[in-house]
Amino acid sequence: MKTFTPPPIRPGIHPRSGLGYRIDHGMRSSVPCLFVFFVALVLSAPLNLPGQVELMPAVIMATIFLWSVFVPVFMPSIAVFMLGIWVDILSFGPAGVMLLLMLIVHGVALSGRYTLARVNFFVLWFVFGVVMVGVTALQWVLCSALALHIVEFLPFVFETVLAFGSFPVLYTGFVWTYRFVVNNAAPS
Length: 188
Fold this sequence. Notes:
The protein has helices spanning 19-29, 31-43, 52-70, 77-91, 97-111, 113-116, 121-147, 154-185. The protein is mainly alpha-helical.
């Protein structure tokens, strides 16, 4: 005798999860990591842009912060670790500093994500600014310690101001990408 199974709560046509669906879902879920990968690659090239060295950590930290707060499954810790190694290789800075800072930003965003995902944009912007001040101060301390002398502090202040100022633009791009990637990736 067959067991009775109730009808589905949301009846409708459900796509079969074939190879095309898995490839589509895999590509959508790798968009944030690929963005960080290519930002590091492009901004490490000798383009002679003003503030190019300071722009790379600003964009990368904001991207990691936003995706870790709102969709941490698309920015897992192992991906942040691998991207940190990639950024360290391309940035020609002290070994491990960017890796550590990226993991700290990821950890702060993950630990506060249930609160930060519900606040308005200005509170999120302020929290990101506070995180960037702390991370940039730690970066300056680590770079000074590894160089065995006190390095100039002004580029680190510029990096913090650039990160704080570019956050609204990156947030707008994040919202557009979130709507395209996450909403279309969910099965109906």
